[in-house]
Structure formats: C-alpha cells, structure tokens
Amino acid sequence: MPVQIISTPMRITAFISGEIDHHNAVRIREAIDSSVEKQCPKVLRIDFSDVSFMDSSGVGLVMGRYKVVNSYGG
Amino acid sequence: MKPINEIKLELESRSVNESFARVAVSAFVAQMDPTVEEISDIKTAVSEAVTNCIVHAYPVSVGKIYIWAGLYEDGRVRIRIKDRGCGIIDVKQAMEPLFTTLGGERTGLGFAVMESFMDKIRVRSKVGSGTTVTLEKNIKGRVN
Hints:
Number of helices of chain B: 4
Strand order of the largest sheet of chain B: 1-2-3-5-4
Oligomer: heterodimer
Shape of chain A: globular
CATH superfamily of chain A: STAS domain
Distance between the termini of chain A: 25 Å
Strand content of chain A: 35-45%
CATH topology of chain A: Transcription Regulator spoIIAA
C-alpha cells in the first residue's frame, strides 16, 4: 500500500511512499478519505518524506484532501 | 538537424502505463549523462503529457499514445507525445495555469508544469483528430 495512516483522536497522519501520479493518486485518495470520513479529524497531516516522484496529481491530492477535511469541520 | 539516436513507443491509454512512459523516456535520455534534476524534470513533464492523453484525449475509451524521443548532438532532447483523441478546442486557454475542463482533483497545472520543467513546448491540436505535444530540453549534464 503506498499510504500508511496513523490516527489519533484529533489528528490523522498519512505517510505516502513511492510515486504519486494520476494512477496511484486514486488509491491514496481513497485510503485517506475513508479515514477522514470515519474520524472527522481537526488536522490531517500528509508526510511526503518517502515520495520519490510526484506530478500535478500530487498537488490535486493535497488540494482535494484540504476540501474534504474542511467539509468535515477540520 | 537529424537526431543522433531516437526511439518510438506506442502505449495504450491506461493509467497504469503512466509510470512506464516516464521511466522509459528518462532511461533513454540517461545516455546523455543528465543531472538527477534534469531527469526528474523530464519524468515529470512526460508524466503530465501522458496523463493528459489518458484523462482528456480518450476520456471514455482506451486509445493509443505515440511517444517519440530524439537526442541531438548539441545536447538537446526532443520528446513528442501524440494521441488521436478528441483534441483541444482552445489550446491557448488549455495552457493557462489552473484552467481545467474537468473538476474533481484535476488542478489544471499540467501544461504549466511542462512549460516550467522543459525549455520549449509546442502544442498542436485539432478537434476530432488529436493532439501532439512536443517538449524540448537542453541537457547540460554533470560538470566534472
């Protein structure tokens, strides 16, 4: 799995690894969104330390997650 | 000017092929002894162009993506990414940063990324016939 999620009551941290392109972004997005929907965290932290490649799909991933977390009150 | 070496690739417009396309082109360019940054720029630009073919050119079907890359004696690399998809109605508008015809997670940054990571970009498109994106970069390589 290219994303590992660690949850605490107020915060979700998503550790992404490998490459983020339009193909991989779908699975990463689904994994993060499903955790956000369950937990409605105040803060979502995305860790890109282990990302070796990213194109504009990665930017879309961040912008999209901001909107999702915002819509759940985060 | 004729290239000193060239390759042609033909791929199906399946998103799983995005990584293959960028890695194949960058592996070919590697013989010019580019820097890591130059390779990374090319990988990103190719990824953007191929993603555009998959997302925009063939939105509801699987079509062919034709990639050609040529290396030139003066250190230039030229990459052509062509589709026979739906074409772009207004190329100038499509190239504006943040402009996108699709909502959702598309940022409208594809052409802006290609422009900023490569030295030259040319886009030719005809509605109903397809689009050809030509990218060019001067490889300076490592200075010993």
